[in-house]
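ok so i was messing around last nite and threw this chain in just to see what happens. nothing serious, just curious
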Amino acid sequence: MHRIKLTDHLILIFGVLFLLLPIWVVFASSTHRPETILNQGLQFWIGDYFWETYSAVLFDNTGFTEAVNAVLMLKNSLILGLGFSVGKILISTIAAYAIVYFRFPAGSFFFWIIFSSLLLPLEVRIIPSYEVVSKLGMLNSYTGLILPLIASATATFFFRQFYKSVPEEILEAARIDGAGPFRFFVDILLPLSKTMIAAIFIIMFVVGWNQYLWPILMTTDESYFTVVMGIKQILNDLEGNRIPQYNKALALSFLAMLPPVMVVLIFQRWFVKGLVESEK
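result:
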């Protein structure tokens, strides 16, 4: 029995090291000069240019207008990630609540119409979405970045399945106590859904944080660039000797990983619990 436990731990440790190795290589390589990376490839040991590289990435302005840095791009990505996730949760919880608890003609039909939108990913509907946003004058704005993306058939489906698993006795007890639809939703249904909300929040935050195609189409003003766009922008900026700034791109990539990892670590317990409850 002890031998089996030791083997299990060794397998887990090996898996953790295997997953952390690429992250370590990115961090270690970012502390070297771009010439070193160009001539010798990725590095496995920390170099002597940690502070120089990360201070330049965080605070030195770059881009065509020389008016954007990593702090601004991280802020834009944070706004996009939070707006994306919170907006999807608000829309999805309300839509799922209406579908499950309100009896109206063709309710199931409309739900499957919503669910069928999963067959139309962003890449398929991006041109008409851009045209609508352009006509509404929301280009180069946080509203234009977030609003067209918050409708979520996936989150609506998960909340619908969760609400259908809530016992009818809870609804009947709420009616006896005189709770109306709004009070039942806010005081009873949402607290019961907190683990599901946490799980959906993590997934949607990571998806919103990693958005690239939609922001690059929506923004021409560099002050709205996200951190994912900034990685590509740094590679496009060449130094005087025409060497791509690989170290700065790797440093920005490492910084871009930190907020999603922090969110996952903070909500990890609720995330796992929400996924398990959604399967029951």
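not much to say yet. The chain has a mean pLDDT of 83.
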